[in-house]
Amino acid sequence: MVLSGIIAVYAFLSKEAPYYTSGYSLCLAFTSLSIITCGLYWLACWHENRRRDRSVTNLSLTEHEKTELGDLSPEYRYQL
């Protein structure tokens, strides 16, 4: 959000007042990009969790070893 003040100066031009078409177009573009990337991230998490559900999880690991593996642990599931 730090850059939004800098970008706003160049996006919302006074010569386009009161409609500011380029400024609002830029806002809509970034919002659309955000929605698309969130959807792609959800899809990637869902796919990885399905892959982990199908894989072998009984690797005879201790709880300490599973903790040390972090998100590489076979029991780890991604969440949003």
Q: Gist?
A:
The chain has 80 residues and is an all-alpha fold.
Describe what this molecule looks like in 3D.
With 80 residues, the protein is mainly alpha-helical. It has one domain. The chain is 64% helix and 0% strand. It has three helices and no strands.
* Gyration radius, rounded: 22 Å
Strand content: under 5%
Number of DSSP E strands: 0
What structural class results from the helix and strand content?
Answer: mainly alpha
Alpha plus pi helix count: 3
Largest sheet: none
Mean pLDDT: 91
Unreliable segments of 5+ consecutive residues: none
Distance between the termini: 21 Å
Question: What is the chain-wise order of helices and strands?
Answer: HHH
Morphology: elongated
Could you say how many structural domains there are in total? 1
